[in-house]
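User: Please fill in residues for this 217-position structure.
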């Protein structure tokens, strides 16, 4: 089995520094989410290596470390069109200060922008970063449900508004995630819709089950 490339290049000092760009107050977009998607990326990179697809693990690692950096801040007040655009700028600052080459940083910025809702993947690195970030959609249902509940609470916190009614939240989640599941990703066999149990099928099964889920107490 191929070695996990993420595990081989992890930098505890860098991770501690990056953690300072996240807020533990957020129920979902916190540094625990970063750790989760790094795990997903490691498994994806192992699959890529097994299937003969070359991917620059450094770009994937840096991009996922910083893809939601500053999420708790108002990107609009700071003059950015999206949270991803702000995160990309924070990534450039952080990595430039550490002497990372401009070519790698540019790849990191592009990969972070690929995590936009309507983002496009121009290379394998972009696809791995995007799908690692979205890995929770196709995760075991218990994890998928926890994420759904956490994001619901986070939206209320960040907008300083009441929690969205459960049925309304589930309907909105269906709409948003169905858009993600409609995309095509040319990566590994797990994203081949013709194969049983693929990522898209798991995600759709989670959405179908969520539609029947009673409001959590």
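Assistant: Residues filled in for all 217 positions:
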């Amino acid at each position: 089995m191929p070695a996990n490339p993420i595990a081989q290049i992890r930098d505890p000092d860098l991770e501690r520094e990056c953690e300072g760009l996240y807020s533990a107050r957020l129920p979902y977009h916190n540094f625990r989410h970063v750790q989760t998607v790094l795990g997903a990326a490691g498994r994806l990179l192992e699959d890529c290596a097994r299937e003969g697809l070359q991917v620059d693990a450094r770009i994937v690692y840096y991009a996922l470390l910083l893809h939601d950096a500053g999420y708790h801040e108002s990107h609009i007040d700071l003059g950015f069109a999206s949270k991803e655009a702000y995160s990309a700028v924070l990534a450039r600052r952080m990595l430039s200060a550490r002497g990372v080459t401009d070519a790698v940083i540019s790849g990191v910025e592009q990969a972070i922008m690929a995590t936009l809702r309507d983002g496009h993947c121009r290379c394998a690195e972009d696809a791995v970063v995007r799908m690692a970030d979205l890995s929770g959609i196709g995760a075991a249902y218990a994890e998928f449900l926890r994420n759904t509940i956490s994001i619901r609470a986070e939206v209320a916190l960040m907008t300083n508004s009441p929690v969205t009614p459960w049925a309304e939240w589930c309907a909105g989640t269906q709409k948003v995630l169905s858009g993600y599941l409609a995309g095509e990703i040319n990566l590994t066999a797990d994203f081949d819709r013709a194969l049983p149990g693929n990522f898209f099928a798991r995600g759709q099964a989670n959405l179908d089950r969520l539609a029947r889920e009673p409001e959590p107490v």
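For context: The chain is about 60% helix and 0% strand.
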